[in-house]
């Protein structure tokens, strides 16, 4: 779980990097400051983790390249999601009905309430993906990457306020860097937008 959460912190930085390399996106000075602060926050987590986090890097790079491909293809969010789902359906069906062997994979033997929960999980997963793909076609990839820090921040707030988790000093340092970076990024965007009008 720790390595996966680290992947969610690395992912926006990879999005920013891919936006610069493949889409020619450029930053203003304040945006560079925000990126440097976010990198510092992620480096604190990497240092705390203590080794090269293969799962975190795999997660970060795969989702970032997915965002880049969605940006380059420029297909409407719903159409793209339909094509992706239809493409993956045979693979998922083979796995679910032929390979997987867990209590939840035997839908014919499950209680109706469990099957309904499993189907609802699909809907709950699809809605954020539709929002992401819609944003990927409309925003700069680097901007999209920066706003992906909102998810881990909300998870942090839920963990602390509702689940009573106590974050360590390293997590607080990471979040401080990222929150300041987000604030700078947003303030710069607002300032630039006002100057244009």
UniProtKB/TrEMBL annotation:
<feature type="transmembrane region" description="Helical">
    <location>
        <begin position="172"/>
        <end position="191"/>
    </location>
</feature>
<keyword id="KW-0813">Transport</keyword>
<dbReference type="InterPro" id="IPR037185">
    <property type="entry name" value="EmrE-like"/>
</dbReference>
<keyword id="KW-0812">Transmembrane</keyword>
<feature type="transmembrane region" description="Helical">
    <location>
        <begin position="6"/>
        <end position="23"/>
    </location>
</feature>
<keyword id="KW-0472">Membrane</keyword>
<feature type="transmembrane region" description="Helical">
    <location>
        <begin position="81"/>
        <end position="100"/>
    </location>
</feature>
<keyword id="KW-1133">Transmembrane helix</keyword>
<dbReference type="GO" id="GO:0005886">
    <property type="term" value="C:plasma membrane"/>
</dbReference>
<protein>
    <submittedName>
        <fullName>Protein RarD</fullName>
    </submittedName>
</protein>
<comment type="similarity">
    <text>Belongs to the EamA transporter family.</text>
</comment>
<dbReference type="InterPro" id="IPR004626">
    <property type="entry name" value="RarD"/>
</dbReference>
<keyword id="KW-1003">Cell membrane</keyword>
<feature type="transmembrane region" description="Helical">
    <location>
        <begin position="30"/>
        <end position="47"/>
    </location>
</feature>
<feature type="transmembrane region" description="Helical">
    <location>
        <begin position="112"/>
        <end position="132"/>
    </location>
</feature>
<feature type="transmembrane region" description="Helical">
    <location>
        <begin position="144"/>
        <end position="166"/>
    </location>
</feature>
<feature type="transmembrane region" description="Helical">
    <location>
        <begin position="53"/>
        <end position="69"/>
    </location>
</feature>
